Every structure is written in C-alpha cells, then in structure tokens.
Amino acid sequence: MELSTLIGLLLGFIAVGVGMVLKGASLTALINPAAILIIIVGTIATIFIGFPMEDIKRVPKLFKILFAKQQLISKKELVKQFAEWTTVSRREGILSLENRLEEIDDDFLKKGMAMAIDGNDAEFIRDVLSEDISAMEERHRDGALIFSQMGTYAPTLGVLGAVVGLISALSNLNEVEALGHLISAAFVATLLGIFTGYVLWHPMANKLKLFSRREAGVKRMMLEGILSIQAGDNVNAIHNKLFAYLSAVERRELTEEMGNEKA
C-alpha cells in the first residue's frame, strides 16, 4: 500500500473541511448535486472526448498503481546480483548463467540476460531493450496525461459551475433571503473544481510520472549490467558503471556492506 497517497488524500480533505469550519462555513454546503454533477461528470466527459477508449480503459489500473506500493528491484541488490553473475560468467562462461534465468522474476531483466546468453551482439541488445524502455515510458506518459488533463479541466469546469449558479441567483434577485444561499452554492462548484484539480488530479499525475522515471532508471541500470556481462567486464568495472545509478547514500551503504562481507 502506498501510504503517501492515502496520507495526502486524508490531509487534503482535512485541510479543506477544517478550513471551512474555521471560516464559519457549513460542510453541508458541499452537498451540492448540481456542482458535483458539473465537476465530476463534466471532468469525466472531457476525458472521454479527449482520449481514445483504449487509454480510458487503463484508468482503473492507474488508480491501482497510485494506491499500491511500487515493487521495484533494489538498486543495491542489482549491483550485488550483477557482481555475482559477472564472477560466475568470467569463471565458467556466460552460458553457465542459463540455469539461473528461471530465478529471475523481472521479465525485462530475464529477457535481456537471455539475449546476452544466446550470443546476441551488444548493439542489438541495447537497441531492443532501449525500445522496450521507450515504449514503457510512452505508455506511462499517456496515463499521466489523463490525470494532468483532468487537473486542467476541473478548475475550469468549476468556473462554469459558478457561472451557472450565478445565473440562477440573478434570476431570483427579488428573493433576498434565498439570494445568499444561491450565491454560496454557486461558488461550491469553483471550490470542488479547484480542489479536485490541484489536490487530486495534478498530484496524481506527478506521482505517476515519478513512478515512471524510477522504473525507467532501474531498467536502464539493468541494461548497463547486462551489456557489461556480455562484454566480459570484471567486477570492478560493473561496480563503476552501476554505481552511477545510485545516490550518494546508497553508494556509501553498499560500500560498507561490501566491506563487511569481505571482512
């Protein structure tokens, strides 16, 4: 479970709810079917108009990604794994790694290692796996774009809802008591539009982009490790190449772990 998403949603609703109470506004004002219809259904309508059906069918999966903890192989574990494979490959030959393919859970890594073991040249392996990464990034961009567009449309629809509410209010100028309620209800649509756009949809799009960058980074690290094994590099060369993908903290931790193992 991705706790940051749940915590963010909870804090967002608390911020608006408590803020309204502190300002003396009633939370029951948010129960406005017309505003909800215009913002929620209107936003959904814009997505259906702006995206093909095959992309819209992916939305439930995208929500699942946002609320599920991203399962990526640890970069430090990858360095250790490639170092081990390099040692075995240089001692027994790259074909000796074929028996270890079934132990690999990641499809991208398994595919790349299989290509290297089968004797494909480095340029071919790089081209194929780089295309895989590019295709993945494009799919992820399309998914994040849906949420970005929802975040763009929702506040504008909030203005539309406010205009509709003001039209209703101005048509009842003779009813002074009802006028205040009508104007208040008109701005509920604006509140909902801004809240859903900038507290929900845009942040969700940003998180999807971040997840995509992280996954692409891990896959590029795998690619470099596979090519190093294919080239017959030694363990030190593997470390030098893959350490570039680690943060300073990860490098220090891994160096300490490796030192402890040798000791």
How are the secondary structure elements laid out?
Elements: H1 3-22, H2 33-50, H3 53-56, H4 59-67, H5 75-92, H6 107-117, H7 122-170, H8 176-231, H9 235-242, H10 248-262
Protein described:
Keywords: Cell membrane, Cell projection, Chemotaxis, Cilium, Flagellar rotation, Flagellum, Hydrogen ion transport, Ion transport, Membrane, Transmembrane, Transmembrane helix, Transport. Residues 6-72 form the Motility protein A N-terminal domain. One of its GO terms (biological process) is bacterial-type flagellum-dependent swarming motility. Residues 102-216 form the MotA/TolQ/ExbB proton channel domain. It holds the Pfam family MotA_ExbB. The structure is a single chain. The protein has 263 residues and is mostly helical. It has one domain (31-263). Helix content is 79%, strand content 0%. The protein has 10 helices and no strands. It has helices at 3-22, 33-50, 53-56, 59-67, 75-92, 107-117, 122-170, 176-231, 235-242, 248-262. Helix 2 (33-50) runs antiparallel to helix 7. The two termini are 37 Å apart. The model has no long low-confidence stretch (mean pLDDT 90).
